[in-house]
Amino acid sequence: MKKIVVLTALLAFLYSCGSKDRGELVGVKGKKWHPEKPFGMSLVPGGSFIMGKSDDDIAQTKNAPTKTVTVPSFYMDETEITNSEYREFVYWVRDSIIRTKLAILADEEGKTDPAEDGIAKYAFKDADTADLTPWEKYNLDNYVGLGVTGYEGRRLNDEELIWDYSEIPDEFYAEVMDSMLIPEAESYNGQRTLNWTKVRFQYTWMDIESAAKNKGLKRTEFIKRENLEIYPDTTVWIRDFEYSYNEPMHNDYFWHDAYNDYPVVGVTWKQAKAFCEWRTLKKNIYRRERKRHQINKFRLPSEAEWEYAARGGLEGATYPWGGPYTMNDRGCFLANFKPLRGNYAADQALYTVEADAYEPNDFNLYNMAGNVAEWTASSYDPSSYEYMSTMSPNVNDTLNARKVIRGGSWKDVEYFLQVSTRDFEYRDSARSYIGFRTVQSYMGTDVVGQGPR
C-alpha cells in the first residue's frame, strides 16, 4: 500500500513540475473553436417570439393559439434545397454503391493488385496494407468481415468511374454496370437506364429522446438503422393532379439543367432526413481529413424554428415581408402561390420558380412563403401548442406519421402562406408541392436576437 501511495505522489510531483498552470485549476483546453457559417446558410439569432395565430382564426382550425416561446440560434438554408443539390446526394450514393460492387467483385476474383488494369484499379484500398496505420490494421484484422456482407468497414477506392460503355476496361466492370441497369424487358427506345430503386442510402442514428427516458436498457435498443431509396418520386407530377397534362414536368423537372436551381420535390420526410445525414457525413469527412473539429449535424428545422425564421424578426406579422397583403405598393405579388381565385399566372409563375426568386425576408431567407411547402422535424398534433415546452419546443412522436409542413406552395391559396398557418402530410408521402431546407444548431450562445425590429 505504501508503494502505491509513494508512486502516486511521485507521478503527481512529476506532472506538476512539467505543467505551466502553477498548480491552479485551469481546465482542459482543446483546439480553439471558430464558428463557421455553412455555405448557403444564414445565421438566425436566437430569441423569443409569439408563436401562432395573432389574427382572427378565419379558417376555424383552432390549432395555433398564441404562445410565447424561445429558440436558440441556428443556421438555416437561405433557399429550399434545389434539384442540383439533391442530385449531388443521389450521385454520391450511386457512385458509392457502384464502387462497393466493383471492390467486392475484384476481391472475389483476386484482382487486388492496383498495378493491374481493369477492375483491379477499383479494389478495396486496404487490400494493400502497406500504407495503413497500426490502428487501421488493427480494425481491419478484428472488425472487418463481421457484418452482414462481410465487407463492412473496408476502404473504397476513389478511382474515377467510367460511364462511357465503349471505354469499359473488362468484363468484370461490365458485369457490375449491367447489374445496376433496368432489365432489358423494361427498356424502350433502345435505352437501358439506371435502375434507381437500387440506389439506397444506409445510415444509423440513435434515438436520444427514448434513451433518456428509458434508462437501464442497452444502448443497442435505441440505435436505429435506415435503408431507403432516395431518388425523388417524379410521378407526383402525374398523381397529384387528375385530368391534367404534366408529363413534361415528370420527364424533365428533376434532371434537366433548366431546373437546376428550382426546389426539389417528390421527396418524402424520411428522404429529407436522409439528405441531412448525408450532408453531415460529407462535411465531416472533409474536416476529418484536415484534422479539424467535427461539426454538429444538419437536420430539419422544428416547427418553432421554422416559424421564427419565417417571421424574420417581425413580431405579429402575417407574412415574412410583414403584411397583411400579398402585393407590394406597385401591385406585384410577393410570392409564388395561387392568387386571384386560381389565376396561377398572375404572380408570373405557373409551377415552381427558382429557389432564390422574390425578395428574401430580414434573415435573408428566400421563399419562406410559397413556391413549395417545407417539411419540418415536428409531428403534427392539433393540440401540441397546449403542452409543448416554451424553450426550444418540438413535438417528436415516432408513432405519429403526420409531420408538420409550413409555408404553403405554388398551388396553395394565400392563407397557407401565412407564417402561423399549420398544415401536415404523412411522412412516407411525396408531393409535387413539398420540398425542404435544412438547419444546423449554432454552437454557443453568443448570438442572440434583440427582439422585434
TrEMBL record:
Q: List the Pfam families.
A: FGE-sulfatase
Q: Where is the Sulfatase-modifying factor enzyme-like domain?
A: 41-439
Kindly give the SUPFAM superfamilies that the UniProt entry links to this protein.
C-type lectin-like (SSF56436)
Give the InterPro entries listed for this entry. Answer: CTDL_fold (IPR016187), Glid_motil-assoc_lipo_GldK (IPR019866), Sulfatase_Mod_Factor_Kinase (IPR051043), SUMF_dom (IPR005532), SUMF_sf (IPR042095)
Keywords, alphabetical? Lipoprotein
The uppermost taxa in this organism's lineage are: Bacteria, Pseudomonadati, Bacteroidota, Flavobacteriia, Flavobacteriales
According to UniProt, the name of this protein is Gliding motility lipoprotein GldK
Organism from which the protein derives? Kordia aestuariivivens
Gene name as annotated: gldK
